[in-house]
Specification:
Largest sheet: 4 strands, mixed
Radius of gyration: 21 Å
Number of helices: 14
Distance between the termini: 8 Å
Helix content: 25-40%
Shape: globular
Strand content: 25-35%
Structural class: alpha+beta
Strand order of the largest sheet: 21-22-1-23
């Protein structure tokens, strides 16, 4: 098993380029099954989740070719609508295949997906949305079979602005008969990117970025050449790492408009941030200030995917901060690990009370999920002494060689493989 070894206490400094967004790339990769022609996607990061999705696409019969950060997929030769259970259990985002496979073949067989253990994440909204479009759904144990001779547009109201359910319904609806309206849709930038992709292959989708999305069905979709947006969570992680180590970092290929809530909170903490066209500069010379209350919530509010990383910064702040987690009930697993490094954090139901300490100290910690792992890397970079982060495979699901990114900024971090 790989682990990261970090000698902390060095301010990060320099310039890096942000890679493409995992959470935009995964549904778009699934959506290539709708295209009757080759699709080339650019700015695709080399991540564990991406490689699992590409393996699934190959298993379905697609021709997949990767050259650097460009992936070309020809889904016209896809021959199966059965997603293997062994691959679905590796990654929750495999659920995105339900919508396009159902639209393409009139049938799809999947299994309850795997992924990070950060709380209950049911796919009920996905299934209800597909059923509203006319799918018959049969669940047997972990196996789910959806069938529909022809999907028909419908008005679908989501009880919660689920990103995955919104995207799955969008993909299923693009080839349905008539109009589909999704009310209470999620508004994330990744959904807007999916709309741009679907329209690039000939779909008729509008409203992404608002809470109402309209899809007019079409008969045939073609190929295209498309570039994925930058990863806002990787961007945010690098921003927080720069501030926690009291460094100065420039991020290129970044989109500040996708990070307004994080930028606002970090500025409240006393971090200097400048934004420009595709550029974000972050600098922090002194100890950060506490922030009295932060609440995670669906976009455009503060993202749950940045909660753990921000907690590291606030654990070093002067004063007491409170973070309330409203999205996932299991997303405080990093707290025990941070406390082992000297942080003073107490959990009260779904809130974390963070009392800032002057410094953290290196020790051996374990990444329990993707974002918790990224937070522990930040903590190690900021801490005095050596930190060893174990269970790195969680981090590899969302960061393209995180050790290389931080080493290029002067961080003393390396990957070690146990024999």
């Amino acid at each position: 098993m790989d682990k990261l070894v970090i000698e902390g206490g060095k301010p990060l400094s320099g310039t890096i380029r942000i890679h493409g967004a995992k959470n935009a790339a995964l549904p778009i990769l699934a959506a290539t099954l709708l295209a009757q022609g080759p699709v080339t996607l650019r700015n695709i990061p080399k991540l564990l989740d991406i490689e699992v999705m590409l393996d699934i696409m190959r298993d379905l019969g697609c021709v997949v070719l990767r050259r650097g950060d460009a992936v070309t997929i020809d889904g016209t030769v896809a021959s199966s609508s059965h997603v293997p259970e062994r691959l679905m259990r590796l990654m929750r985002s495999s659920v995105f295949l339900m919508g396009p496979l159902l639209a393409r073949f009139g049938e799809v067989q999947v299994y309850q997906p795997g992924g990070c253990a950060i709380g209950e994440r049911k796919i009920d909204l996905h299934l209800r949305g597909l059923a509203a479009l006319g799918a018959e759904i049969e669940e047997t144990g972990s196996r789910i079979v959806c069938k529909a001779d022809r999907l028909t547009g419908a008005e679908i109201s989501l009880d919660f602005p689920s990103v995955g359910a919104t995207e799955n319904i969008m993909m299923a609806a693009v080839m349905a008969k008539g109009r589909t309206t999704i009310i209470g849709a999620a508004r994330e930038p990744e959904i807007q990117d999916l709309q741009r992709f679907l329209n690039a292959i000939g779909a008729k989708v509008r409203g992404a970025g608002t809470d109402t999305i309209t899809v007019d069905g079409t008969e045939r979709l073609g190929g295209c050449d498309f570039q994925i947006i930058p990863d806002r969570i990787v961007t945010g992680t690098a921003m927080v790492a720069a501030a926690a180590t009291r460094g100065e970092v420039t991020l290129e290929g970044a989109e500040s408009a996708h990070l307004i809530s994080l930028i606002h909170v970090m500025r409240r903490a006393g971090v200097h941030i400048e934004t420009g066209d595709g550029i974000i500069r972050v600098g922090a010379k002194g100890r950060p200030r506490a922030v009295d209350r932060i609440v995670t919530s669906p976009y455009p509010a503060f993202p749950t995917d940045m909660q753990a990383q921000l907690m590291v910064l606030l654990s070093l702040a002067g004063g007491v901060s409170v973070i309330k987690e409203t999205v996932f009930e299991g997303r405080f697993k990093h707290v025990d690990e941070l406390c082992r490094m000297g942080a003073d954090i107490r959990i009260d139901l779904n809130s974390a009370i963070v009392r800032g300490v002057p410094r953290l100290y290196g020790t051996t910690v374990e990444a329990t999920d993707l974002r918790a792992g990224a937070a522990l890397v930040i903590a190690g970079l900021a801490a005095q002494g050596r930190t060893i982060v174990e269970q790195v495979h969680h981090i590899d699901r969302g960061y393209d060689e995180i050790e290389r990114m931080f080493a290029s900024l002067g961080g003393d971090i390396s990957r070690v493989t146990d024999s």
